[in-house]
Amino acid sequence: MRKAYGFTVVELLIVIVVIAILAAITITTYSGIQQRSRDVARQSDVTTIQKALELYRMDNGRFPVEVPNPGNSTWEISSDPGFLSSLSSYTSNTSFKDPRHGAAGNLGYFYHRFAAGSYGCPTSMGEYYILWVRTMEAQPAPVFKTNGCDGATLLVGTYATDKKTYAVWGF
User: Fold this and answer.
1) Residue 80: which residues within 8 A CB-CB, separation 6 or more?
2) Which of 169, 134, 166 is nearest to 50 (CA)?
3) What 3 state SS string does 9-51 have?
4) What is the pLDDT of residues 131-164, one digit of tens each?
5) Exposure of 157 by Cβ count < 10 A (0-12 exposed, 13-18 middle, 19+ buried)?
């Protein structure tokens, strides 16, 4: 009698299902890693901008004046050419763009300088700025680092509850 060699159809199907499950887990995990790494890059950009703003203030006695985006009130936006160009000597001419590079319009980084006492911040704290990121991907809730100011009234409505919001106040 002849001996049969090979695998049965059931065995082959089990192997295919196991490979498909492993592939799905890997793809999902990889996607989450990419989102978190872009968020880390955004937070790193915010930290770099904060340091440059502090150096600028030490040299000039105040924070730089924003160059408003024509379609977005008075906020300076990273999708505009020359975003925070006044900081170029402090950032080695780094261009701050959202890591996804496809983000345009009202996505990316925002900067605005406010007068002392604006929006609930005590006058004694002096003028301040807000750096705002609207494109965070992996954080579970909005983050507001107000540094002791109750100026969170600036970001109201959907921005205050949107988990993609990351905002830092600087004095």
Assistant:
1) 67, 69
2) 169
3) HHHHHHHHHHHHHHHHHHHHHHHHHHHHHHHHHHHHHHHHHHH
4) 888 888 888 777 877 777 765 566 666 666 677 7
5) exposed
Q: Whole-angstrom Cα distance, residue 74 to residue 60? A: 22
Pairing outcome for strands 109-114 and 128-133? antiparallel
**Starting at the edge strand that comes first in sequence, how are the strands of the sheet with 143-145 ordered?**
76-77, 109-114, 128-133, 166-170, 143-145
Segment 12-54, tens digit of pLDDT: 999 999 999 999 888 877 878 888 898 999 999 999 999 999 9
Other Cβ atoms less than 10 A from the Cβ of 111: the count is: 23
Tallying the residues shown for the chain, one arrives at 171
Residue 168 region by backbone torsions, left for phi larger than 0, else alpha for psi between -120 and 50, else beta: beta
